[in-house]
Amino acid sequence: MKKISRSIIAAATIAAFSSMLPAEGFAANGCGGASWYALHSKTASGERMNPAVLTAAHRSLAFGTKVKVTNRNNGRTVVVRINDRGPFIRGRVLDLSRAAAQNIGMVSSGTAKVCYQVIS
Q1: Which CATH number characterizes residue 35's domain?
Q2: Which of 82, 30, 74 has the alpha carbon at shortest distance from 54?
Q3: Residue 73, φ and ψ in degrees, nearest 5
Q4: From the centroid of its chain, how far is CA 11?
Q5: Confidence (pTM)
Q6: Under which EC number(s) is this enzyme classified (predicted)?
Q7: Domain tally for the chain?
């Protein structure tokens, strides 16, 4: 049996696991469905959810990331801060706070088609 050096094993392990990590480049911009929520429970970041603040939930963007969200139906935009995880419904890319949803005109419909772009 041949002896394999530790550096080769380490390189192979890093290569294998790096392909499993989410690429932020893919999550930086996107389009899909959005919904809104107005709870007062704790968010995944540990802060209390405040429906009056411009925040949102995203599955993988870092907490604190600022995202420009555009309602594709009316062109209205809002900048939100990611502070929670979700949405957990297929086809949806963001869960917005009630204030953010109101800014882009989607409160009455409950959902909207949106595009988002990371700005910082």
Answers
A1: 2.40.40.10
A2: 82
A3: -80, -35
A4: 31
A5: 0.76
A6: 4.2.2.-
A7: 1
